[in-house]
Structures are given as C-alpha cells and as structure tokens.
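USER:
I wish I could look at a protein chain and see how it folds. I am handing you a single protein, as its sequence and its fold in token form. As I understand it, each token names a local backbone shape. I hope you can help me see how the letters and the tokens relate. The protein I mean follows directly.
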Amino acid sequence: MLNNLLKQPQDKILALMDAYKADVRENKIDLGVGVYKNASGATPVMLAVKAAEKQLWQNQETKSYVGLAGDPAFSKCMIDLVLNGAVSLDKVAAVATPGGTGAVRQALELIKIAEPNATVWLSNPTWPNHLSIVKHLGMPLAEYKYFNSETGGVDFDGMLHDIKKIPTGDIVLLHGCCHNPTGANLTSEQEDQLIAILSNNGVIPFVDIAYQGFGDGLEQDARFTRKIASQLPECLIAASCSKNFGIYRERTGILIAVTCDPQQRAITQGNLSFLNRQNFSFPPDHGARLVTMILEDTPLRKSWVQELEETRLSMINLRKQLANELHKKTGSDRFDFLAHHRGMFSKLGISSDLVEKIRTDFAVYMVGDSRINIAGLNMTTVPLLATAIAQTI
C-alpha cells in the first residue's frame, strides 16, 4: 500500500527555514517564519502566560477530558474577546480547536456538510494554508482580487468587481485584520461597502482572525468581524490565540458560528461537536485554560493587554523605520506603504528573482512572493534590509 504514495511538495516556508539554518553567514536575517520575535530574536513567553501556568500547576487536580467542544468557559471568553456582544449569545455556537489552522479546517468541513457544492472564494494572495486545505478537501475553489503590488495597497475596485460576481450560497473567506501575507487592510468605509454586497448577494462570510491585537489594537482589530457578525444572518469565524497570547506550540484556537436563531444554533453546535469527534475527539486544553485564566482574572488580563500593546507598537515602529530607511536609500516613496500596513507581515511587491538575489547576496530570507515578517527585524537589522533591497532593485 505505502508503495503507492507519492512524494509531497515541501512547504515553501519550512524549506526556507531549513535553508536559513544551513546558512553559515553571521549577518543572516530570517524574515520568513511567521512567529513574533523581540529585539533579541527570541519568541518570549508572555508574563501573564507564565503567571497563569504557575497557578495552573499549583491548583490543577485533573487532566481528564473537558468535552468535545472544549471548556465552555474558554468559548465564552473567546466569543467575548472577538465579538464583544455584537450578536446575541443564543445565536452563537463554538468549539475549541487545535490552533487557528484547526478552526479553519473544521469550518471547511462544516461547509462541506451544509453546502457541499459551495465554492470557497479566497483572496489573491492569501495565507498558503487556506489554499492548501481547500484543495486537500476537494472543495470548489475560486479567487477574488485583493492586493495591488504597484501601490502596496488593497485593489478595492478589483475586489468589489469580483465579490459582486459571487453566487448566492458561496463562501468568501475574509481576513479579520492584519491581512496575511500583504499587511494591507480595508478601511472602515470599504468594509461597509463589502458587507452590503455580501448581504445583497446572499454570500456567506468566513472570517479568519489570527492577529487580533497585532494591528490597531484589540478592539479596533475586531471591528470588521463584529460588523459582519451583527449585520449578516450567518457567518463562520476562525480565531487563533497563537500570536496574541504567544502560545504557538499549545495549538489554541476556536471556531465560532453565528446562526440565524437559537434553534439553528443548537443544531450547528451539535454538528461542530460531531466534527471534533471525527477529527481529534477532545481538543487540547492547556493553552485554552491559560487563555481563560488570563481573560477572567483582572490583574492577569491587564498584564497581558499591556504586553500585547507593547508588541503591537514595536512592530509599528519597525514599519516606520523600514519605510523611512527605504525612502532614504532609494530616493523614492515606492515603499512608503510599509508604514501603513498592519500586523506581522507585508508584501514588498518585488519579483521572486529579486527575492532570490537578496537571499544570495545579502543572506536575507523572505518568502518567494516577497512577504516579509516585520517582527523578524530589529533596529539594527532594518538598515541592513533596506540596503539589501535598495542595492538589488
């Protein structure tokens, strides 16, 4: 049987990580891997997480299962964090998942049960795992325009043109904030225009919000998602705790489904639990419990919010520094858009050949489509990157 297996293509980001590790140059810069790094190049454990873990170690008395949907307290805390009362709780179903990726996968599985012929529309570009999972599940797939490489902003006219063509009942996957890989977000007015079209056409939104708190702040980053949940009859939301709580390896995520009424909510909840049972049975609890403890405890929550805000501001400052350095070294405003992007990532809009040349000549590792992880920089490496880009282009 195993002789029938074919070799799978290597994940491009994982391959980039391996190449970076093998590079012996001392001045190498890793801008590929999608994790937050501080100025020292470390991905630290947040102070609130450490404090919660200490409490958990001292007080936890069992490691028994918590249920197919995970701990109800975790769901309640996360629904509040993401939606904050935007929709009545008796219309909201939710299940804990292994990370945001698990939430995306379970959402797509739910769509296959509810609307097996629905096409899933993804932004071009989008997070590669979106495309990979949809293809793996054999679901109909299409793309809508999103990014303008020349301006470094959203191609909103192109986006609206494509969104207007999406048939009733199809699914459109939207990034809640901090678009990955481009870093370019919609304005509030553009969000309103888009939601009106989705409402008129009967298109079902599926929001992936993996970076709440990394863009313009916890509340501001949830604005788009809350509008969608409150103004449209149905939506799916995949949320991740990897970035904003810094608990990547704990694989902590949640899938939220906003339904039309309490009766439909009960049926949806049953289906979500069923899907968890088929995939992994009981979701992991350690990270979810830490998140719950932090969000329910006033001092821990205050500490977490403060550290998250410091993280957010550090990335904004790096963006401004990089944009200024590039403006100075290139003598143009070509890369000024970097200061206006939000989140960990930005897409430079340069060719894959130039990306490879920068890697070869300057030991700067970025994804082939020119996506860079802003959090992989520090005040010392920003000028080095700017020099590499300026001398290459």
DSSP finds 14 helices and 13 strands in the chain.
